[in-house]
Design brief:
- This protein has 209 residues and is mainly alpha-helical.
- The protein has one domain.
- Helices cover 48% and strands 8% of the residues.
- Strands 1-4 form a two-stranded antiparallel ribbon. A two-stranded antiparallel ribbon has the order 2-3.
- It starts with 7 loop residues before the first helix and ends in a 7-residue tail after the last helix.
- The N terminus is likely disordered.
- The chain binds iron/sulfur cluster.
Amino acid sequence: MIIDLSFKDLYGKALEVQELFDSVEELTNQIRIETGLRCPPSCRECCRTRGDAIQVTITEFLPLSLKLWNEGRAELFLSTLETVLDDDSCILFESSPELSKEGGCTEYRYRPLLCRMFGFSGVMDKFGKVVPAICRLLKTNCPECVSKLLERISEGSRIPVFSEFSSRIQGVDPYMGTRTYSINVALRRALEYVGMRVDYTTKGFDRTA
Ligand code: SF4
């Protein structure tokens, strides 16, 4: 069933989130070009992490939830999510490089912040200085790329800082964008939230905006 979603606030929020995701992507792509720092082909070790160690907000899953409801796939995802435990791997994880060439995520374009920024991003130290946090496999795979990255940062290149982007997610929706859940729970709650809005809207009394 294709649903014509008419509620603008949700689309607005989803668009803002997707724009944030795209700006992280732009920054990381720039770093990849400048330093050669990139994940080894078909590596997906970080996606194998237990689901409760990947903490994300409901807001980060609004773009994907809208897409899945629009494509009529949301109910299938919800029934899969009913069967997983909190510490199970993310249900979007695809272990076969043949099936998912862009990393281990079947919904790569819609993956949350942490999944985008795990490889390399910045954290603020206690003096407010940006310190790069780099995946150990990336460090082993290309130490010279890491040296180049450090050099670029010292010359003023920008690296996406996790706390900055997560507070911008909070800004999109202070309630759903603040509390984090294990990745499967966050996806289920986002799908349920959008689903509830779909249900109310089709009945003509959506007042939750
Ligand atoms: S971030 Fe690290 S573990 Fe994840 S895909 Fe890249 S190299 Fe592999």
